[in-house]
Amino acid sequence: MNPFTPQLLQQPEGKTLEFKRDLSSPKPLLKTLVAFANSAGGFLVLGVTDDRQIVGIEQPLDEEERLCNLIADAIAPRLVPNIELLTIEGKTLLVVEVYPSGQRPHWLKAEGPDNGVFVRLGSTNRQADWELVAELRRSVEGTGFDEMPMPDLSVDDLDIAAAQQLFGASRTLDEKTLLTLKLLSSHQGKLVPTKGAVLLFGKERLRHFPDAWIQCGRFFGTEKLDIFDHIELDQPLPKAVDEVMLFLKKHAMRGADLSEVRRKDVWSIPLSILREVVINALVHADYSQRGAPVRVVFLDDRIEIENPGLLLPGMTIEDMKQGASKIRNTVIARVFRELHLIEQWGTGVRRIFTEAQELGLPEPQIKEIGMRVRFIVPLLEPISLRKETQPTGEQVSEQVSEQVLSMLQACRVRERSKQELLEVAGLANVYLNYKRHIAPLLEQSLLAMTIPDKPQSRLQKYRLTDQGRDLLNQANQ
């Protein structure tokens, strides 16, 4: 038993700690034990109220035997925690220590393996859906989601030319290299792309992973209520890092350090910290989840970056801050490292906290919220927006998406169909891309329909508006 268990009584309930008064309501207690085993382990202390008042356990030996029988009868696969009696202030407590299990997922027998799996989320227990159950199984087997083959696809479904452009002369992406990087996998005698390969370089990545995109928003004030600007990015993941940083810089303030021979830009947001957080989110996102893109939120006093997926089993937020690391997506992480987006395994989060301290920033926060991990980076000084704020010409020229500019520029020459606009932007002609890339331009009056009364007409084309022309002019200044 951990010799420091008495000190746990001074801590609040959380991911690895829960207090119970007694065994009068066994089901919530059993859920907690299952959740601990499926997550990062933890301590369940019986004989303590929720407000940490020590009341003790009457007939502790009998209660210990009852608890052991409950665990054996109610939980599958068999769970064998460490149970000890501890005397504090003359009162006896039952302390149950659960270790992260190598047999996960565990579940409550009465609920069954489909509905009885629970994980720990903060100080609560959360029922796991089938996607999370699959993630728990993969974590035991040592197989990453992005290593799994996609047998219905071939190497022709990967944009090898775009990938080679990113790698440059440092590596030739021949068949052997693609296998080494696990971008290709042997499946039933043929080579097929892995899920990681399609997420990174798939020609139709959003058709296979419709939620593998990034949602960026700049809001007025300190609450996510009134949005000022937003963009949705669906570029290959390595390119998306720079696009996110462009969006953040668009809404930051820039000054100049003239103390050196050459001008050095000084930004009002910690760019190196934010870049590390963005990369961390893309590498550790659970791309098996549906309806959950990576989100980047810029508020007056902080920037929040969150990705789908809880921390991997065995990991806690404190572990992350100390530099511990588990890789969810080994294929994506390997490619990011080959492209020098990641320097050394496990050092990124620790470097974030160290640099924040050196810059005098409030300490960043990491939270598990819902089925997502949120990284909160406070700003040293607030950057307030007024309702009448508009992007400057310099901001527009630097930050408007190349895809947006290419579509607007195409319509400056002549009216274009939906297919033509998506082709110009390098996007597949699917409805999802229309919704994310053309519909917002219509909403912002940058483009207009040539047949507005029949939006679904097969003859529908799009023309450049005066507002769209002004935006192009600003971008070219």
Q: What can you see in these coordinates?
A:
The protein is of the alpha+beta class. It is 37% helix and 20% strand. A hairpin with a 2-residue loop joins β9 and β10 (190-193). α10 (237-250) runs antiparallel to α11. The radius of gyration is 26 Å and the shape is globular. The termini are far apart.
Flag low-confidence runs.
392-399
Taken from the alpha-carbon principal axes, the silhouette is globular
The number of helical elements comes to: 19
* Widest β-sheet, arrangement of strands: 12-11-15-16-18-17
Strand share of the residues? 15-25%
> How far is the first residue's CA from the last residue's CA?
68 Å
Question: What is the average of the pLDDT values?
Answer: 88
Radius of gyration: 26 Å
Q: Tally of extended strands? A: 20
Major sheet size, sense and barrel closure: 6 strands, mixed
Percent helix among the residues?
25-40%
Overall structural class, as computed from helix and strand content, comes to alpha+beta
